[in-house]
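Exercise 7. Given the encoded structure of a 80-residue chain, write a plausible sequence.
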């Protein structure tokens, strides 16, 4: 029986995408780029839960007028 990943595990997978792309604090990636690189076809629900976890914990932030852009914060960089 397969165990589903936790939101935190999904969030750490998202941060790993930033690390592989050499993204620094204050730089961003688009939601589509993140989703297409998310753990080899991970479930959409897992991706959404991970992205929410990143934002709720201050690892990533968005701007109100640019909701498809996710900026890496200092806290997120330290976690990656």
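Solution.
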């Amino acid at each position: 029986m397969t165990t589903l990943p936790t939101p935190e595990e999904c969030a750490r997978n998202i941060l790993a995408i930033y690390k592989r792309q050499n993204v620094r604090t204050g730089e961003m990636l688009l939601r589509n780029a993140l989703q297409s690189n998310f753990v080899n076809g991970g479930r959409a629900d897992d991706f959404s839960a991970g992205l929410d976890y990143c934002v709720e914990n201050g690892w990533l932030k968005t701007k109100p007028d640019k909701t498809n852009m996710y900026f890496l914060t200092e806290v997120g960089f330290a976690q990656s």
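Remark. The CA atoms of residues 59 and 75 lie 5 Å apart. Students should compare their own answers with the one above.
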